[in-house]
Design a protein that fits this description.
Layout (H helix, E strand, L loop, with lengths): L8 E5 L4 H12 L5 E6 L11 H4 L2 H4 L2 E5 L5 H9 L3 E4 L6 H6 L2 H26 L8 E7 L22 H20 L2 E7 L2 E2 L8 H10 L4 E4 L5 E3 L1 E2 H14 L5 E4 L4 E3 H12 L6 E4 L14 H5 L8 H14 L1 H7 L4 H14 L2 E2 L8
Parallel strand pairs: 1-2, 1-4, 2-3, 4-5, 5-6, 6-11, 7-10, 8-13
Antiparallel strand pairs: 9-12, 13-14
Bound molecules: nicotinamide-adenine-dinucleotide (NAD) and thymidine-5'-diphosphate.
Length: 367
């Protein structure tokens, strides 16, 4: 089975979101002839402005097409897959807290949407087998370390059982299990990536790092869940996007690849570093009621991806400092991203928590 290479035509679903738009911008900036069609529903998290750098560059713009639509709609998806050499699926509802408040959209996109994409790829795989097209399209299903559930000690390897614990993680696990089943049953050329917690520019301000940076810039309280002792392994968005491209071009069909960040930190320590970078006091931090079912720790082993030839480039302290600087310099972007249902969501998620909050214990490593 041949894999797509530079110059291919890619269908990038969810390409107006945080990681998908970085993938699109960075791949087009390689100037290797790759053509990209972005299919994005433009939910509250999708933002056409995330693609402005590519759309404003005539050479890149000539290789980029934007289609607004839903991956769960076969009428939109089918013709786009006919024209694609590969599908890279970033589209998902991506926020754990919203999945706890309202899981329906997570299942619609994460399960039905993935099914619609797989069916379209299946038809094209059959056409390739019948000699009606050169090569079956490859599909990359972008998944997450959260499918492993909370990892008390050690590091998850790709062969570990999945044990998702939030509606978000369960929808992601369902999507990737469907993708693997289509590989086994119908011979689809599927590869799966499991990325760890990602940070960087264009990250929606609902997530920990951008929420705390933007609230701190406004001198608003920073709602730290529970004792803040949860651990995440932080991966810069440019490394995550490049690792996905590496798996697209070099991964083996049917295989799953962890993409760790190799920067495991306690939330409290991340928050302390953000405050230090902004010269803001720890007194902004409030200890609030915990997220139900909050996973204590994620940590993955990256041996398989290293063996495939990929190594991350961005070191966490430098990446975080650059990210904080980006938010300082792009106030217009993040204020606009706090549009739509932001005020209602923020009140639902945080009003009672903040009203009943307590002083938070300081960081363990002095930030
Ligand atoms: P995001 O929420 O910023 O972007 C998701 C994008 O998908 C948005 O542009 C949205 O408009 C679009 N979308 C949502 N539903 C759609 C639908 N039905 N049809 C078409 N488009 C739709 O998310 P992100 O952080 O960029 O995450 C991208 C992918 O990476 C997701 O699959 C997520 O599960 C996965 N992932 C994220 C992280 C992380 O830390 N952010 C880590 C590992 C894996
Ligand atoms: P988040 O950015 O939502 O990513 P994920 O749930 O995918 O790991 O959260 C990262 C960590 O930060 C997680 O342990 C939950 C915590 N957190 C808070 O303490 N307060 C908040 O307001 C948010 C959004 C997250």
């Amino acid at each position: 089975m041949t894999v797509p290479g530079p110059g291919a035509h890619l269908l990038v679903t969810g390409g107006a979101g945080f990681i998908g738009s970085c993938f699109v911008r960075d791949l087009l900036a390689r100037r290797d002839g790759t053509r990209i069609t972005v299919l994005d529903k433009l939910t509250y998290a999708g933002n056409r402005a995330n693609l402005a750098a590519a759309e404003g560059d005539p050479e890149a713009a000539a290789r980029l097409t934007f289609v607004r639509g839903d991956i769960a709609d076969p009428g939109v998806v089918d013709p786009l897959v006919v024209a694609a050499d590969a599908v890279v699926n970033f589209a998902a509802e991506s926020h754990v807290d919203r999945s706890i408040l309202d899981p329906a959209a997570f299942l619609r996109t994460g399960v039905d949407g993935v099914y619609v994409l797989l069916e379209a790829v299946r038809r094209e795989t059959e056409r390739a087998a019948g000699g009606e097209r050169d090569r079956a399209p490859r599909m990359v299903q972008v998944s997450t370390d959260e499918v492993y559930g909370s990892v008390a000690e050690g590091w998850s390897v790709e062969t570990d059982a999945v044990a998702p614990r939030s509606p978000y993680a369960a929808a992601k696990a369902a999507g990737e299990l469907l993708a693997s089943a289509y590989h086994v049953t119908y011979g689809l050329d599927v590869v799966i990536t499991r990325g760890s917690n990602t940070y960087g520019p264009f990250h929606h301000p609902e997530k920990l790092i951008p929420l705390f940076v933007t609230n701190a810039l406004d001198d608003l309280p920073l709602p730290l869940y529970g004792d803040g002792g949860q651990r995440r392994d932080w991966l810069h968005v440019s490394d995550h996007a490049a690792a996905i491209a590496h798996v697209l071009f070099h991964g083996s069909a049917g295989e799953t690849y962890n993409i760790p960040g190799s920067a495991e930190r306690e939330n409290r320590d991340v928050v302390a570093r953000i405050l230090a970078l902004l010269d803001k006091p720890w007194s902004l931090v409030r200890s609030v009621a915990d997220r139900p079912g909050h996973d204590r720790r994620y940590a993955m082993d990256g041996t398989r991806l290293t063996a495939l030839g990929w190594t991350n480039r961005v070191e966490f302290d430098e990446g975080l400092a650059a990210t904080v600087a980006w938010y300082r310099e792009h106030e217009e972007w993040w204020r606009a991203a706090r549009g739509g249902d932001w005020d209602a969501y923020y009140a639902r998620q945080y009003a009672v928590r903040l009203a009943t909050s307590a002083t938070a214990d300081g960081p363990t490593e002095g930030g």
